[in-house]
Structure formats: structure tokens, C-alpha cells
Amino acid sequence: MNPEQITEFRNRLLPQAIALVEQATGGESDRQFAEAVISACKLLELSTTSESPIAAIERTVKFESGVYLLQVRRLETSNPPGKFQILITRELASGVIF
Predict the structure, then answer these.
(1) Residue 70 CB burial class (10 angstroms; 0-12, 13-18, ≥19)
(2) What is the DSSP-derived secondary structure letter of residue 26?
(3) How far apart are alpha carbons 31 and 80 in whole angstroms?
């Protein structure tokens, strides 16, 4: 992707990423969280030109209201290309028991 394509890609996804983050966090808007979503999408899109494209990414995002798991999958059969399935879940509890 050239710089112009990256800018267009980011501008196209940013409003949707912000809306998704607001939905996942109960109305809180966090630009850094949305940027994490876009960063994952961009990495997946850039990998399509390699011999071994990445199919999905998981990231842990720490936010004021808690810890969230971000799962992003590039939809290979999307027309036009560049569509992603995004799942944001909140970690309510975690730990190790024995």
C-alpha cells in the first residue's frame, strides 16, 4: 500500500471502528482503542501481498473500563476486498486455579 492508500483505508475504517468500540464498551469512545482495531486490519491487509498472508489477529486491549480481547479476521472472499470480521469481548474474570 502506498501512503495515499493507507490514508484512504484508515479514513474509511475509522468511523466504523469508533462506533464498534463504543458499542463494545457501553458508549465510551476511545480513539486509541479504535486505532488498535485499524492497526490490526491494516496488518492483515498488508499481509495479503506476502507468500503467507495472516488470516486473523488477536490482541488484548486495556481500557479504562476493563480488559478487552480484540479478534480481527480478514474475509478472504469479500467483494470488494478489505472487509474484516471484528469481535470485541470483555474479560470479566481470569486467573489460574489449581
Answers:
(1) buried
(2) T
(3) 26
